[in-house]
């Protein structure tokens, strides 16, 4: 493994060297960076031309300029090499601060969308593979191809109109008629009926239970004025935490007599974790990223401890499931704090909490949780727009990979041995279905650093995509090269990680 990694790093270094040289030459020869100044009239024309010529080293041949830029990169890599700037732009400003701001905006915008698309797409793909040729399968296939086909700027415009504007108006007076609540309940019942499937009787039961439960929940939320003053509270954290404990246990261990220690470990994590959060209530409410990260580490460690003490023979499995439950409880606590900050954000934004442009509310003076909720309110629309295309991609790839794996001989052997369907799917099928996805995920995570140019333009985000297009339009090589350096390095790195993931997912693959 070590030999493979070292060899890949050496080869990747020369690939990056050649690609950056070619890119720099093409950008430098794509136009005249002095064109706008040559058209000026006035006494300052010559001085401005001299300043830009000095900033971009235009009196040096293109190849020489590339090595000057390479020297700037070396000062950022080698310790004691001098001030790290990644060169100057056409206005004589260092490129590094611009790159840092752009990366920060892009990571906030695209990473969340990619992670959500990955999780939802993989889960949906697995379900559609298990429900092949069902109504749900055909429906998801139609939605996936629709998401592929819709232009991102068109989707963004629809989201601005029907999600931001109309939803903001509704949030100002959140009321629903009984007919509207019934409509929502019917849609929810159909959704769960198609996912769970089964014979006609089972479908009717699922539809009825899901529809009634949805009607009761929506009516209760409206009656308690939840959409004006949302909250989970201790009761909500415990209820949803126990539901997560049952869900994680069902997924990884099954709800059988043997899995009782696993379920007990997860339930204990929920109860003890909630008590600890209550004891540290003021600290959690004050917030801060160190507090949030510390809470996550503490609750996950509590889950591992509960699994070790209460897990019995299934100790290792109990530790994993209880650790996931602890992480879920931490997320629930964070969501509860964010919901508690909603009224103050609603008042600070004039009753329009969902934003259509920009990345944060100017001059917002608020506590930690309100500030984070403000950031999230700006992420809702662009995240959803970006997520649609990636969601469709992951869904289709996962479905195809899962269908291929479920038809293999070892799957039939596992079924012939008497293993239940959950064990066959989760332990034998799903892991091998992830192998083709490793490449797709690697490219996707490398591509997110390139930003989403159209989405950033529609929603007014100044990220990596905007940095690249602006610099390329202005024939400004150094910002373009900073963009290329980050994206090319990320591509090479994540491809190497994908190869390592192959060996982990499939023991037959060896890296040498």
Summary?
The chain is an all-alpha fold and about 500 residues long. Helix content is about 75%, strand content about 0%.
State the main characteristics.
mainly alpha, 0% strand, 512 residues, MetI-like, MetI-like_sf, 2 domains, 21 helices, ABC transporter permease
Write the SSE topology.
Blueprint: H1 2-28, H2 35-38, H3 45-56, H4 62-77, H5 95-130, H6 135-149, H7 152-172, H8 178-196, H9 200-223, H10 233-252, H11 260-279, H12 281-286, H13 289-310, H14 315-340, H15 342-348, H16 368-406, H17 409-416, H18 421-447, H19 453-459, H20 464-473, H21 477-505
Membrane topology: Multi-pass membrane protein
Organism: Nakamurella flavida
InterPro entries: MetI-like, MetI-like_sf
């Amino acid at each position: 493994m070590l030999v493979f990694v070292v060899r890949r790093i050496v080869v990747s270094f020369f690939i990056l060297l050649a690609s950056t040289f070619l890119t720099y030459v093409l950008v430098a020869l794509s136009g005249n960076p002095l064109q706008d100044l040559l058209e000026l009239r006035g006494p300052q024309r010559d001085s401005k031309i001299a300043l830009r010529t000095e900033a971009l080293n235009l009196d040096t041949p293109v190849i020489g300029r590339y090595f000057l830029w390479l020297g700037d990169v070396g000062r950022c890599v080698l310790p004691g090499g001098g001030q790290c700037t990644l060169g100057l732009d056409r206005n004589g400003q260092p490129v590094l601060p611009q790159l840092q701001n752009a990366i920060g905006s892009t990571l906030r915008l695209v990473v969340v969308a990619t992670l959500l698309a990955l999780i939802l797409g993989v889960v949906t793909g697995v379900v559609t593979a298990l429900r092949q040729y069902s109504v749900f399968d055909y429906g998801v296939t139609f939605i996936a191809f629709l998401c592929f086909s819709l232009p991102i700027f068109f989707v963004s415009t629809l989201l601005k109109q029907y999600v931001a504007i109309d939803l903001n108006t509704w949030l100002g007076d959140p009321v629903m008629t009984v007919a509207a609540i019934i409509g929502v309940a019917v849609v929810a019942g159909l959704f769960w009926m198609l996912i769970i499937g089964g014979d006609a009787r089972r479908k009717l039961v699922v539809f009825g239970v899901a529809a009634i439960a949805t009607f009761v929940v929506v009516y209760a939320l409206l009656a308690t004025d939840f959409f004006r003053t949302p909250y989970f509270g201790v009761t909500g954290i415990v209820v949803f935490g126990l539901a997560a404990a049952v869900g994680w246990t069902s997924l990884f261990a099954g709800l059988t007599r043997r899995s009782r220690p696993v379920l007990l470990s997860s339930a204990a994590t929920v109860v003890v974790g909630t008590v600890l959060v209550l004891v540290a209530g003021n600290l959690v409410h004050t917030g801060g990223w160190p507090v949030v990260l510390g809470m996550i580490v503490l609750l996950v460690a509590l889950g591992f401890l509960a699994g070790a003490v209460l897990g019995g023979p299934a100790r290792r499995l109990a530790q994993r499931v209880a650790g996931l439950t602890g992480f879920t409880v931490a997320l629930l606590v964070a969501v509860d704090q964010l919901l508690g900050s909603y009224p103050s954000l609603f008042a600070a934004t004039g009753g329009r909490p969902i934003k259509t442009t920009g990345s944060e509310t100017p001059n917002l003076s608020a506590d930690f949780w309100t500030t984070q909720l403000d950031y999230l309110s700006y992420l809702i629309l662009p995240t959803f727009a970006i997520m649609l295309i990636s969601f469709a991609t992951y869904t289709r790839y996962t479905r195809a990979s899962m269908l291929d794996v479920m038809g293999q001989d070892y799957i039939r052997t596992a079924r012939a041995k008497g293993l239940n369907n959950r064990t066959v799917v989760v332990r034998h099928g799903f892991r091998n279905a992830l192998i083709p996805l490793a490449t797709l995920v690697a490219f996707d995570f490398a591509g997110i650093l390139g930003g989403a140019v159209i989405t950033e333009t529609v929603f007014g985000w100044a990220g990596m995509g905007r940095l690249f297009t602006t610099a390329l339009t202005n024939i400004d090589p150094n910002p373009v090269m900073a963009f290329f350096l980050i994206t090319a390095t990320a591509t090479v790195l994540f491809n190497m990680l994908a190869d390592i993931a192959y060996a982990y997912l499939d023991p037959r693959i060896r890296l040498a």
